[in-house]
């Protein structure tokens, strides 16, 4: 099967669950003998396999797309000039700048992208479609976010193949858009979603949530949980000293400040946890630097800066080493998210989790049995749950073992790839039977 994936890149500066999901799926489909082409958008992709998109140009380069939004002349500049701004090293620098991923400043551009060939990035739409038409015709095109629904009408009209969209946490981005852009984006997305053949979500919770917002008919909805390559996650023994872990972007919105406060309290108030350590991984964007500096100063004032590791790497080898050093992992973001890939990464290592009972977290933790759920945005409940698990190692180990077995059975990359292939084949059969 010839499959084309269109996915936004993150620039590789932080732990990007969407990028990991898409690149892992592509790698496994290639191993199964399928022909997969990855088309990155905006920025270079963050992937555990750096050469995965090698040889494919970046479309809608982040700088060009922004300039075309803000300065009309750039909507008509020649390709040789645009190419200068699409250089990987230039885009990597842009990814590190504050505001590059800030929804509140990109409302007009989000709406313009959803307008597709009618938006300010129309020449980018034409460039992408022309490139696609010059390649061998795909059997399936899979786009990784419904925020790219603006591409759907032209793709369907010109490529005439089944079109799949993944939806994961777009409502979080849209919620931060200022009005009237937020309302306009939801409205245009509701119109465009009928163009596609399937919408895939990583959890039933999020499928129900996004279907209600976009009026997605039941016939288009599909739930395919995220899977990971579990090779190498097993560990021989727990850490020598109790160690908390955080694996996500180092952002104020994702609960890192709450976990640090819980760590300080546990360290200061429980003599049995005087050796407790905290390890933090996930990278950051330009908007996160000030927040992280404040956290470092807080730990210094508490006399605990030497008990905390801020780890800059996010590649697979570094994550495996990091996860094997933990007793418990917790990312206490108050509102949860659509899935939580870090949950299954921790459980694959036998590390139990403590997560808010919110969003897709509830579904994944209950299904795996690999951790504890606490009321959202409840510091005291977080401290209590962490305290109890840290001081009851047999129970923590049992949760980790149960969770690991469930991940191996249900959340592997093989399971995700087979479910996705089943969907592709169903759509392909349906498409062939309806073609003249």
Structure description:
There is one protein chain. This protein folds into two domains: 250 residues, Rossmann fold (3-Layer(aba) Sandwich); 168 residues, Glycogen Phosphorylase B (Rossmann fold). The two termini are 21 Å apart. Helix 1 crosses helix 18, helix 6 runs parallel beside helix 7 and helix 14 packs across helix 17. It has a six-stranded parallel β-sheet, sandwiched between helices. The model has no long low-confidence stretch (mean pLDDT 92). It is built from 18 helices and twelve strands. It has 436 residues and is an alpha/beta fold.
CATH class descriptor name of the largest domain: Alpha Beta
The CATH superfamily name of the largest domain is Glycogen Phosphorylase B
Number of helices: 18
Extract low-pLDDT stretches.
Answer: none
Order of strands across the biggest sheet? 2-1-3-4-5-6
Largest sheet: 6 strands, parallel
Q: Which percent bin holds the helix content?
A: 40-55%
Q: How much of the residues is beta strand, in percent? A: 5-15%
Proper CATH architecture of the largest domain: 3-Layer(aba) Sandwich
Mean pLDDT: 92
Number of domains: 2
Distance between the termini: 21 Å
N-to-C SSE string, H for helix and E for strand = EHEHHHHHEHEHHEHEEHEHEHEHEHEHHH
User: What is the CATH topology classification name of the largest domain?
Assistant: Rossmann fold
Describe the global form: globular
Q: How many β-strands, per DSSP?
A: 12
Radius of gyration: 22 Å
User: Structural class of the helix and strand makeup?
Assistant: alpha/beta
């Amino acid at each position: 099967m010839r499959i084309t994936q269109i996915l936004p890149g993150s620039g590789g500066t932080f732990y990007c669950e969407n990028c990991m999901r898409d690149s892992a799926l592509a790698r496994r489909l290639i191993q199964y003998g399928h022909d997969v082409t990855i088309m990155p958008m905006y920025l270079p992709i963050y992937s555990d396999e750096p050469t995965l998109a090698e040889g494919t140009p970046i479309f809608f380069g982040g700088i060009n797309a922004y300039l075309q939004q803000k300065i009309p002349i750039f909507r008509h500049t020649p390709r040789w000039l645009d190419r200068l701004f699409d250089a990987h090293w230039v885009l990597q620098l842009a990814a590190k700048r504050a505001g590059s991923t800030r929804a509140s400043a990109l409302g007009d551009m989000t709406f313009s992208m959803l307008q597709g060939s009618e938006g300010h990035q129309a020449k980018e739409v034409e460039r992408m479609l022309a490139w696609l038409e010059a390649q061998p015709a795909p059997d399936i095109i899979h786009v990784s976010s419904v925020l790219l629904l603006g591409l759907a009408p032209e793709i369907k009209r010109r490529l005439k193949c089944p079109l799949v969209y993944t939806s994961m946490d777009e409502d979080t981005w849209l919620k931060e858009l200022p009005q009237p852009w937020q309302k306009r984006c939801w409205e245009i997305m509701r119109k465009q979603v009928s163009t596609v053949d399937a919408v895939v979500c990583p959890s039933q919770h999020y499928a129900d949530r996004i279907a209600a917002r976009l009026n997605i008919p039941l016939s288009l909805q599909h739930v395919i949980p995220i899977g990971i390559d579990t090779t190498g996650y097993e560990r021989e023994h727990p850490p020598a000293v109790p160690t908390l872990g955080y694996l996500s972007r180092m952002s104020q919105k994702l609960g890192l400040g709450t976990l640090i406060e819980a760590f300080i309290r546990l360290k200061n108030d429980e003599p049995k946890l005087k050796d407790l350590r905290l390890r933090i991984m996930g990278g950051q964007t330009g908007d996160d630097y000030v927040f992280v500096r404040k956290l470092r100063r807080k730990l210094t004032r508490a006399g605990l800066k030497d008990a905390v590791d801020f780890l800059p790497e996010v590649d697979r080898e570094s994550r495996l080493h990091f996860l094997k050093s933990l007793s418990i992992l917790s990312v206490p973001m108050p509102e949860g998210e659509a899935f939580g890939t870090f949950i299954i990464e921790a459980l694959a290592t036998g590390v139990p989790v403590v997560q808010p009972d919110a969003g897709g977290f509830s579904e994944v933790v209950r299904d795996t049995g690999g951790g504890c759920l606490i009321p959202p945005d409840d510091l005291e409940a977080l401290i209590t749950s962490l305290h109890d698990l840290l001081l009851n190692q047999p129970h923590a180990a049992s949760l980790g073992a149960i969770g690991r077995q469930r991940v191996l059975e249900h959340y592997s990359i093989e399971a995700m790839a087979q479910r996705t292939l089943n969907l592709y084949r169903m759509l392909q059969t349906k498409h062939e039977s309806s073609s003249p």
